[in-house]
Amino acid sequence: MIRTSRSLFGDLDVQVEADAPIGVSSWFCTGGTADFLIRPNTIDALAELIRRCRQVDTPLRIMGEGANLLVDDDGVPGIVVRLDQEPFKAIETNVDGNLELVRVGAGADLSRTLMTLSRTGLAGLEPLMGVPASIGGAIRMNAGGAFGEIGDAVHAVACLDAQGELQVYPADELRFEYRRTNIVDPVVLWAAFKVEPTDPMALRTRIKEIAAYKKRTQPLAEKSAGCMFRNPNDPSSGERVSAGKLIDQTGLKGHRLRSAEVSPRHANFITVDRGGKARDAIELGDLVRRRVFDACGIDLQREVVVWGRDGSDPPA
Ligand SMILES: Cc1cc2nc3c(=O)[nH]c(=O)nc-3n(C[C@H](O)[C@H](O)[C@H](O)COP(=O)(O)OP(=O)(O)OC[C@H]3O[C@@H](n4cnc5c(N)ncnc54)[C@H](O)[C@@H]3O)c2cc1C
User: Using CA positions, which residue lies closest to atom 49 of ligand 1?
Assistant: First the structure.
């Protein structure tokens, strides 16, 4: 069992919570604790923490808004970091005197950011309206949907690498693919976006339309982490197919496993009842995966990141 020593962060400018209930603060509202939740007050403290964790092999994970995360009921070893202090949330317009460039800290809320920009008539991030995310989490996942992806608007991304050193990547060094990027550094620190001055009223109308579409098509009020599985490529045509449709065809829409359910509204959403178990969602996901494989030979890959003490997605 990994033991996390307080000597890793005792002298750093950070806020510390032991046995922190990160599962219930994720969008699933269920799951276990982190040995330590750390909120750095400065970028230097975060960089030093990364270096020290690397030296002693302590897992360090970054939690954004927890909208694509399922924390197993037994919790997660090591350190979970949240970038929710002021130095990580700044929204800066007119970067380097360029009206068409904004820089946003990784800890800033995506929807709040695009609303702030829309008030001054800056367009670019509105296709992401209604996607719950921090800027860092949205970059890591290349969040997007019917109206576009965050990668479309990126001018540059800054990260802290495994040695805690700052790396700034211009857009032409980055690859944004369907729900993934080529960023391997453990922490996204900020992103700069290309924006376009536009009529604020027209922008507001567009944002309302996109929000209404999301509300119509997704069970936003339920406890979930959005789509459980990536849309796979059809092995014969090579075309991307809807995982939701494949799940629907197995007849599992509305299927329940204890506190977890395949959403009757959108078959690629697994939802969990208030007070339910993360394990139920994990097991239901496994059942869905087996049924789809049996039905059409396609092995669905999870889009939701699962953290646990074993068998979970590895830390960055
Ligand atoms: C109701 C609902 C609707 C959704 N709709 C959509 C949709 O339409 N399109 C879509 O793409 N997604 C959707 N999602 C999923 C989710 O919104 C996105 O995946 C989003 O990008 C997650 O961001 P987050 O900040 O919550 O990341 P988290 O869930 O906290 O983390 C996700 C991953 O990103 C990593 N990460 C987070 N922050 C950082 C950082 N600063 N540096 C490095 N790594 C980091 C985490 O370690 C983890 O591996 C939806 C989710 C919900 C609950």
Answer: 305
